[in-house]
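[job 0412] stage=complex_fold ligand=iron/sulfur cluster status=START
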Amino acid sequence: MSDKSSPNPRPAESGKRRPSVGVQIGKVIVGSGAPIVVQSMTNTDTEDASSTAKQIAELARAGSELVRITVNTPAAAAAVPRIRERLEMMGVDVPIIGDFHYNGHQLLESEPACAEALAKYRINPGNVGFGKKKDSQFAAIIEMALRYDKPVRIGANWGSLDQSMVATLMDENHTRAVPWDASHVAREALIRSALDSAQRAEEIGLARDRIILSCKVSGVQELIAVYRDLAARCDYALHLGLTEAGMGSKGITASSAALAVLLQEGIGDTIRISLTPEPGASRTGEVIVAQELLQTMGLRAFTPLVTACPGCGRTTSEFFQELAKTVQEHVREQMPLWRVKYDGVENLTLAVMGCVVNGPGESKHANIGISLPGNGEAPSAPVFIDGEKAMTLRGDNIANEFVGILDNYVASHYHARGD
Ligand code: SF4
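[job 0412] stage=complex_fold status=DONE, emitting structure tokens
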């Protein structure tokens, strides 16, 4: 590991992953070239074991490979083993990560069953403790991780920077011939906070393959700058994400913009998309965005994705959008079953196109494609299977018939797992 500051590190060659030390979290490996792991976080009250277990199960079934929960009170810590039991009764074995702030050392000490049930502890060096207590409380958590053989994510955060580190760096900055600007000092404080904490954890006895780092901020350019620097200065596995991405399209766009640049440079071993859900919306949206980001970049395949044209003045009605939505929703609903049953089904490609201009061409590139009639075209919809025109659909039942064709294709083209 190099601990030197390198503000302009050369990005990794596109397509190559930055080498990192692998960390095992339950059955999941993060880093060392393992597939980039999707994770998420609940927003239920952890003290409510029933609701929290239900949401963890939903997130896991949507494809979250790790799920984090806040552990903020003695009652929340006491609920953790009951959450784990409920999940096991539901047949959900996703590793649960405990998120600790301020009182993690006390909660882990007083609730051994919580310490045991969690697959990883996440701590924030900016609020693990203050003043003289900071070092002892940090050490107490690391010692608990050693006692229970758990990995730890040291997650520094722009919004809760270690103020003693900021003060030290400001003093250092005053002695520079050309002082850094304030954002450079803050970036360095974030990175040094994570790296120094990791070094301290290793001194206490935690192995390098039990440590994951993150340095989260909420700005796209800042995140890219921080992670390029962090990645060049260590070989710990890295967790990527904006600390608060925001709501709706803004959250999705900001997360994708920041993470895509870093992932393309080979930086990042696990990702979380910190979306604010729309009121009443499912928490699983953040999992779908994370999967779609990795899949559209060609880094992983999770579920068949529908290629659909945007539609234009040549499209005749909303039917084309409705069909694309119906097909994508059908695939997502079926995927928990298909994933278990059919080997490789996640690589299936689908196209729903609005007219003859690009419809047949795009449909031929997909495993299954349909080209709906545009303005002035005959009211028929040719379906292409593996590049060949297989049939033409007409009438009011096109959506159901197309979904039937899809189901038959999956059942006949993918081997049952274990065959
Ligand atoms: S395929 Fe046809 S309907 Fe779709 S955007 Fe292109 S021209 Fe418009």
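The chain has two domains: 23-297, 305-413.
[job 0412] exit 0
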